[in-house]
Every structure is written in C-alpha cells, then in structure tokens.
Design a protein that fits this description.
The protein contains eleven helices and twelve strands. The chain has about 325 residues and is α/β, with parallel strands linked by helices.
Length: about 325
C-alpha cells in the first residue's frame, strides 16, 4: 500500500507512522506536514529512513492533489487541535481543519483514492457529570468551542462528499489520547514536564471535568482496523472505557512521580469547559472485532512518564514558550 498520512509529524500522526513502519513493513509511507509548532521532524527521527516526509500545507490543493494521486489510501490527521489556542485565535483552526479537509476531499474525489478521516468526540459537545449515557454514532453534533466546531464542519464535509460524489471514506471520532510525542501544551504532558522542570502542576477549576482516556497506540490500531475493514461512509467511535476526572488524573501523575498528590495549583477554568466526554465503542468492538490493549491506565501513564523523563531533548525546547503563553492567560 502507498499510504499518505497528513499531519504525520504531530502527536497521533507520528505514532501512527511509527506503527505503520513497525507492523506493516511493506507499506510505503509518505507524510505531509506543515511542521508548525505542533509538528516535529524529531518525532519521526526513529523512522526517518523508512518514510518520505514532505513539508507542505494541507490547504495547498496542488501539493495535496499531487501526493494523493500517488497514493492508494489517505489517513487524514492534519488539524489544529488545542482548545485554548482556538479560543485565543480561531482563524488557523478554520483554515486547517475546514479548508484543509476540503482540499483532501477534492483530491481523493478526483483520484478515486480511499480516505480515512480522523476526528474527535468533542464534536458531540459534552455530557452531564454523573450521567450514564455515552456518545454513540447517532449522537447529534453539538460542538462548544471553535476547535470542535471546525472539526464538526470537517466531519460533515466528509459525509457529504461520500453521499454526493461517492468518495470512499470512513470517519472516526476518538476520545482523549495520551502517550509519547504529545505536545507539552496538552494536559498530561504539561503536568509531567512541570514536575520534571520543578514547576507546580496546574489544574483548571476544581478538576471535576471528565475525559475518556485512550492510549495513542490503541487509537491507531483502531484506525488501521477501520481503514482495512470499515464500511464506506460509516462513522466509528474509538474509546477504551477510560473515564476519569481531571483531578484524578493529576493525582495519578503526581503519585507515579513520587510527589504529594495535592502538590498542584488550581487556576482559572477554561471558558465553556466541557463537563464530560464518554465514548461507546461497541460498534467497533462488535462489528470489526477491535479491542484496546492498554487497558491499565496507570501502567500506560507510568510508561508515558518514563518516556518524557527519557526524552527531555524532545520536549525541553518547547517548554518555556508554552508556560509563558499559559502565564499570559493566567493559566
């Protein structure tokens, strides 16, 4: 397979590329990435001799069209993803997430290439704390941030291109990922690297907000499963039954790093902070036979902490700038 991975130098995309090289050695992988602050050549260094990396913008129709025409399938990870950044400046999110997806869709439409579009559970809005309901493929869209709104728009474009033009596409909406190579602006790596640099970790509000955590390798194994066996036009929800409130995750990080579980600061809550995300992955389990491997959150978190401890050269150049931005925002 000649596989094009958009956003393949970002967190989830880079881990996906690593798994492709490791588990599918006959796959010819090309990565398209703009290499903005969230994409890193260093994230692909371990597989650099096994892939082709093209630096380019996913909104550039000429570049995207050429690369898609050379491919058998496209996995579309490229996106702006950080909610705080979207609240501060939504324009890059509209451009990358909406216009970028449009460019990919037009390219696969004209070349007849198979597409898998990677999205987020945040398009469904949030659920009440203590509610037993979970998101399903039939949950109405109700995005609450500029980030999730642009991802919802991208999802709807994909669905309409399938129906209107016969594009061979599948979609997935996944819960919160954690693992190696995640940018230090995100919740778990921010707290880990705060401890490693002698800073006090920071928790939004009371930390009651619940997220449904999944290890990035489990997410990517599900993407492979959908790419190879999913029904065209179908949406699959990827989750690992990993619901935890942010306070519990913070205390787990501190406990695993031999710190007092209450050794952190509360900061002003994020505007419009979604209360709870929860994925029902039963369709993926029942129809495609997928199941997560990393079902012990503490074990996965400990391995993630070890990775950041052992790879300071990867994250250290980013850390001071990220914390300066948070400080300006009072977070």
């Amino acid at each position: 397979m000649r596989l094009l991975v958009t956003g393949g130098a970002g967190f989830i995309g880079a881990n996906f590329v690593h798994s492709a090289v490791r588990e599918r050695p006959d796959t010819d992988v090309t990565v398209l990435d703009a290499l903005t602050y969230a994409g890193s050549v260093e994230s692909l260094a371990p597989v650099a001799d096994r892939i082709r990396l093209v630096q380019g913008d996913v909104t550039d129709a000429d570049v995207v069209g050429k690369l898609v025409a050379e491919s058998d399938a496209v996995v579309h990870f490229a996106a702006e993803t950080h909610v705080d950044n979207a609240l501060a400046d939504p324009e890059p999110f509209v451009r990358t997430n909406v216009i970028g997806t449009f460019a990919v869709l037009e390219a696969v439409r004209h070349s007849g290439v198979r597409l898998h579009h990677v999205s987020t559970d945040e398009v469904y809005g949030d659920l009440a704390l203590g509610d037993s309901n979970r998101f399903t493929e039939h949950t109405p869209y109700d995005p609450s941030s500029p980030y999730s709104s642009t991802k919802a728009a991208a999802d709807l474009l994909v669905r309409s291109w399938v129906r209107s033009y016969g594009v061979r596409a599948t979609l997935s909406n996944c819960s919160n990922n954690y693992g190696p190579y995640q940018h230090v602006e995100k919740f778990i790596p921010r707290q880990i690297t705060n401890v490693l640099t002698g800073r006090r970790p920071k928790l939004y509000g009371k930390g009651a907000n619940v997220r449904d955590w999944i290890h990035v390798d489990d997410h990517n194994s599900a993407v492979w499963c959908i790419l190879e066996n999913g029904g065209i036009g179908r949406t699959y929800l990827i989750g690992a039954d990993g619901e935890r409130d942010n306070l519990s995750v913070m205390r787990s990080v501190l406990r695993l790093m031999d710190r007092d579980p209450d050794d952190f600061d509360h900061v002003t809550d994020r505007a419009g902070h979604d209360l709870r995300y929860a994925i029902d992955p039963s369709v993926l389990h029942d129809e495609l036979g997928w199941a997560p491997i990393h079902d012990d959150f503490d074990a996965g978190l400990a391995a993630t902490i070890a990775w950041y401890r052992d790879n300071e050269s990867w994250w250290r150049p980013l850390k001071d700038r990220v914390e300066a931005t948070y400080e300006e925002r009072g977070q």
